[in-house]
Structure formats: structure tokens, C-alpha cells
């Protein structure tokens, strides 16, 4: 794990879970897998606290455990999973677009709590939805369950692995660490529950505020007196499926930018048809025949079969090479070239960074070297039509930024510089890795700046919170408007402005984190897809 | 009776006559004559006189001396060569053979010109001599030096009345050894605008997609005609020039190219294929990283918490937040 990644993980863990969890988590990321006692000893925290911290981390799938030989259980942190916490807002937003508010809240609950039973999720979501509805209306459990089942059917939520029921009557010695298994077909099987009930409206005196630490063990619902029918069946959000969805979105929008709306709709249909059938890491989707595509087009699009065929031919011939033709049966078999698409997107990201950072002439040189693979200094000047001095300057700038590298081809065995060819080339994989590292550091910088801004104005924030609390309590006990006015004026106008600025800045920094995360997603998908092929 | 000494005057002993005879013989045998042939023709002339005559003809440049397997051949010089050579000779009557040699080498180089070091290699003359000779020739206005565009310090020499080749002057993009970047930029923008409008009209037409796409393409010949008609270029531009400009647009990511097979004889086809160009949009908007100040920061590597440059006191961030 690089320094930048460790720094980012530490910031995320601290923000979401607090100091102690952060200390343990970062220690595990740095040192790899360790047994319990060693963690306690090295970090200097008490055994009790270490246990609690590990519970939190395991609940959220950030730490896994394994029994090693000699009977020692070792815990290992998953750095990449910690970095996914940046993407939570994007997952929740996707669920909202696909399944509206109910879906959004379900996914939010699952992400915030790590693992939950279905009944717990349904109850909580119904309660929350009822809060926002008008007086007198409540949310029915059935509706929430339906959305949950739909989420499970499209694989957005999945079951967590569980301890298999032992066959023999004699339990025997308990294993040191439970071995969790799950079979492929059980992963999305929704238990038959009859959840009847309605959401409860929260009374203002009741319930916990959002500040309480997330449930470490939702195994027992303190409110529920009856036995939970699906005890032991826990659900978690299936992050891979969300990633697949993001990737599809990126491909569709790229096609829309390059061609037109109709072509992008066709590509979207093709991707939707291969959602379940193609594993997410495959380089190509399954071949789809033109007839199938025609049948699966969304209802609103009434284009004739010939027009569809023309569009498919155009897509297959396009230099982008996102769609390929793999055969002629069934009116033409078409596949989507996923690996190529990810490569093009990653290359476009690199080009965009070069353009914004160094200028459009540098971007021209960069694209030139990308296309021609290896070029000499003189050839670069000739092809790009840029004067020699400027071209040299730009090439060196990009070289020191590690976007371009030099390949030496010696003419003589003694590698004398005057008798060697120096060719410029772009290695996309290493440039992508370099950019990814820069993204991690950038996000860490943004988070730090956000925390700094908040800390600077801490006094002001506390004051405004106090004033709000006073106003709320006075409203509850029925105070006059004049008194309320007085209290409100405790915050002066410049202070109010300062608060406004602070809110705006924090929002901007937050939004920027999410935008940088989009770049991270593209680069990581490309790197993963390339490594799988090797 | 007194002895009368009769000196037999060999007839035709006049040197000019001898030369003329030799020249006639050479005309008779355009492939060249050997010494033996001359001897047979004029048996009365002594070897020495023969040699004198031949030497004179050689130095006047009317005969060429060649070596064959059998021996030496004398050949009449071509009348074509005789023209400028006689003009040259009239100027160089007094010059030595070294200058002639250097001039020959420069002449052979044609319109690409030749570098002084190459002249040295070919003639095996020392550098000082070469320089003297070159200066001499230049002052007599027989050769000229042309600055090469590839290496600005290098000078190539070529005959005075020849036009330098494109590779030396750089062609249409160079005027007086200076790369005309503004001219290239203007052409760049014009070509792009032309292709863009073509794509726009194709998109507006809303016909079936095949026709739409095909009409958004423009062949390199069309673009060339458009640019010629615009008349923004003082220099005559060829289709290859336009293609290099269109290539730079491809490297800008604004244009894509396809090659289609075309019948020989259709306008603009070269060797049976045609290049078609089309304006395109980029496939992703500017990526997320460059929207944050860190993506473009020049001192990114020096930035860390607690240092001189840190996220907390970053001036770029402060500016960006104030937007």
C-alpha cells in the first residue's frame, strides 16, 4: 500500500468511525495480517478496545479473518475496500435513480450498517419514509419489501456468507474462527417473510439521533419483542454490481458523445441484456443477435428493424471499436468489447489531464505519440507541425511528469549518446497507475482542507448549534415571535455570512471529492481489466 | 655535284590541322577512339605531336579521356555538355583542376545540395583548400549556399541557377527557414470549421443514419478545394499538405479518419483509396481530477500536511473556493 493510500484510509476511517478504529485499521493496513494479541501490543491499546474496533471493522467488511496453521487467527485489512467508502454517495444516488426513494434508503441503511437482516432493513426504512410523508400517511412494509426483492433480483444486494448447519448431532469442539460459506445460487435468494406492518412515526423525544455510532451487531433488535423470522440471514450491498452499472453508464455516455442518442440507447439495451449473463470481468459480452436486440429495445423507441440494423453496422464500423460483429446468424451477432472500451476511456482520461495541465499543443503531441507508438524527436516536430524549440520543451515537460517515457535503441555496443536512437513512447498502464496515485493524494488533500475549514470555524459552528437548540426548545414550549427574533439575532450578519461561506466551501470540497472518485473508478477498472488479461 | 639536303617536311604538321583531324575522327566514332586508330589515320605524325594535340583538346574540354579494358579512349564531348561547360570554361580558363573537381561534385548533387564535409570526402582535398575553392566559386557566381531547415547551422551548396529541393527549404510551411506556425494554425482552424459545419448539416438533415454518417464525411480532395477557394494561402498548397494539416487535427482529437476503397479515376483518389475525414466530439468531458486544484497543481509533489505547502494553506485552493 502506498503512502497516499494509507493516508487516505486513515482519514476515511477517522471520519466515519473514530480514533480507536482508525488506529487499529491503519496498523493492520500497514503491517498486513496479524493476530489479536500482536495488534494490542503494537498499538498500545487495551485488548477490550481492540476487540471492539475489530468488531466494527469486520461488520463493515473492512477486515477479514483467517485461521492460520498453529491455530492462530489472523486479521487482515482490505485497503481497497476502505477506499470504496468514498463511493458510498454514488451508490446511494444510483439506487435512487433506479428504485426511487425506497431503494435509496435501503441501500443507505445497508451501507451504513455493513450487514443487516431483511426485516430490520424493512422496518427501519419504513420508519424513515413515514417521517417524511404527510401527517396521517404511513409507509407499508410490503412496499419496502417489494423494492428489497427487486434489488436482490437485480443483484444489487446479496446475502452474506454464513456458518453452514452442521450435519452431525454431536457439535464437537468449536472451530477457532467460524468458516463462512455461501453458494452461488443462494446469494440472491430472498427468504419467504411475511412482513406485515406499517412504518412508525418517530416522536421527537424518542429514538437516537444520527450521531450514535453505527450498530456493531444488529443481531438483536432492541425494539422487537417477537423472534425475528430471518435471524442469521444477513444482507450486504453488492459493490461489484454497482461498479458494473457505473461502467455501463460510462460506456453509454461515451457512445452518446461520439455518435447520437439512438446509438447510445441501443448500446444500453445490449448492456442490460448482458448484465446477468456476463461476468463483470469478461473482456467481451456474450454475442447478441440483432433480432434479440430488436425485441428488447425499450417500448418508447419505435425504430424499424432496418434502421436498427443500420445503426448496428455503424456502431460496428466506428473507429471507437466499442461494438464488434462476431457472426451473421440471427441477423448479425454483436458483442460489446468491454476491455477496449475501458482502455479508450482510460486513454481519454489521460489525454484530458494532459490537456488541462500542459495545454492543447502538448495534448496534440501526446495523442500523436500514443497513435504512432514510438517516435523520434524530429518526427514529432514534423507530424505535429509545431516549431522545434517548443516541441522539445513540451516533450521534456511531459517526460518529467511521467506521461511519456524514452526508449533507447543503441547503434553501437557502447551506448554512446551521440550514436543512440531515443524514441518517445507512452506506456498507458504505468501512466494510469501514476495518475491513480495522484488522485488518491488529491482526495486526501481535499479531505484535509475540509477538516481544516471546519476546525477554523468551530467556535462559530458551535454557537450556531446552541442558538438552534435554544430556538427549538423555545418553540416546543411555545414562545412568542419576539423572543425568537431576539435569540436569532445573537448571530450577527457577518457571522451569518461566514457560516454561509463555510457551508458553500464544504459542499464544494465534498463535490470535488466525488468528482475525483469518478476518475479513480475509470482508472482502477482499466488497470484491473488489464491485469486480469495478463 | 653537291648533295642537296632535302628535309622532308611531313605534311599536315600544322598542330591545328592535327587537332581538327582528330576531332573529325572522333565524330566518326562517337563511342571513342583509341590511340591506335589515330596512329593508323595519320601515320606520318610523330607520337609527340599526337600527344601535344590530344592534350590541347583535352584541356580545351573538347575531348573526354576514358579508360577501357584495351587502353585509353578519346571521345568527343557531348554538345549538350559543351554548352554550359564552355561557358564555365570561359570563366575558368585559368583555374586549376581542383576547382573543376569540386564543381563537378556539386553539380552531381543536383538540387538537394551537398555539405562541405561531403565535398571533402568525395574529393579528398584538405579543408582549407575546399574553403578557398568554395569562396572562389561563390564569388564567380557559379554556386550558392542554401541554409538547410533541418540543421540551421548547416549550409549546403548547389549550382547557382537551381531551385532548392523541398526537403531543404521545408516546403510550404517554411518561409525563409522560419516555421510559419500562425499560417498552420489558421489553416488548422479553417479545415476544422469546414468539417464541423458539414457534420452539423448532416445531423440536421435527420435522415436515416447511414446517409447521415456518409454525408458528414469529407474527402481530402474536397477540403483541398475549399481551402484553395478560400485563398488564404499565398503559397500553392498540394493535397499532401492539406493531409498533413488534417493529420494534426486528428492528433488534436477533433477529427477522425477512415480510408475507403475508391475506383481509380474518381476525383481525389490516390492508388485506389480515398481518405475521408469527419469532425467528432470527445468521448468524455474533462475528467474529475482536473476539476480539483490538486489535479493541475505545479507543486503537487512538495505538498504535505505540516509543510511549507500544505492543503490547509494552499493558495490555489483558496482562490478556487472563492469562485
Automatic annotation (TrEMBL), chain A:
Q: Where is this gene product found?
A: Nucleus
One of the Pfam families matching this protein, by short name: HTH_9
Molecular function (GO) terms for this protein are:
single-stranded DNA binding
Q: Which residues form the RNA polymerase III Rpc82 C -terminal domain?
A: 146-344
Q: Where is the composition biased (Basic and acidic residues)?
A: 211-228
- Taxonomic superkingdom: Eukaryota
Q: Does the keyword DNA damage apply?
A: no
Map out region (Disordered) in residue numbers: 199-230
What keywords appear on the UniProt entry? DNA-directed RNA polymerase, Nucleus, Transcription
Q: What is this protein called?
A: DNA-directed RNA polymerase III subunit RPC3
| Species | Vulpes vulpes
Question: Gene of origin?
Answer: POLR3C
UniProtKB/TrEMBL annotation, chain B:
Q: Name one GO cellular component term.
A: RNA polymerase III complex
Q: Which UniProt keywords apply?
A: DNA-directed RNA polymerase, Nucleus, Transcription
Q: Which Gene3D superfamilies match?
A: Winged helix-like DNA-binding domain superfamily/Winged helix DNA-binding domain
Which Pfam families does its entry note?
Answer: RNA_pol_Rpc34
Keyword RNA-binding listed: no
SUPFAM superfamilies in the cross-refs: Winged helix' DNA-binding domain (SSF46785)
One GO process term, biological-process aspect: transcription by RNA polymerase III
Intracellular or extracellular location(s): Nucleus
Give the main location: nucleus
Family affiliation:
Belongs to the eukaryotic RPC34/RPC39 RNA polymerase subunit family.
Q: Which PANTHER family match?
A: RNA POLYMERASE III DNA DIRECTED , 39KD SUBUNIT-RELATED
- Subunit text: Component of the RNA polymerase III complex consisting of 17 subunits: a ten-subunit horseshoe-shaped catalytic core composed of POLR3A/RPC1, POLR3B/RPC2, POLR1C/RPAC1, POLR1D/RPAC2, POLR3K/RPC10, POLR2E/RPABC1, POLR2F/RPABC2, POLR2H/RPABC3, POLR2K/RPABC4 and POLR2L/RPABC5; a mobile stalk composed of two subunits POLR3H/RPC8 and CRCP/RPC9, protruding from the core and functioning primarily in transcription initiation; and additional subunits homologous to general transcription factors of the RNA polymerase II machinery, POLR3C/RPC3-POLR3F/RPC6-POLR3G/RPC7 heterotrimer required for transcription initiation and POLR3D/RPC4-POLR3E/RPC5 heterodimer involved in both transcription initiation and termination.
**What does the UniProt function comment say about this protein?**
DNA-dependent RNA polymerase catalyzes the transcription of DNA into RNA using the four ribonucleoside triphosphates as substrates. Specific peripheric component of RNA polymerase III which synthesizes small RNAs, such as 5S rRNA and tRNAs.
Q: What is this protein called?
A: DNA-directed RNA polymerase III subunit RPC6
Lineage runs:
Eukaryota, Metazoa, Chordata, Craniata, Vertebrata
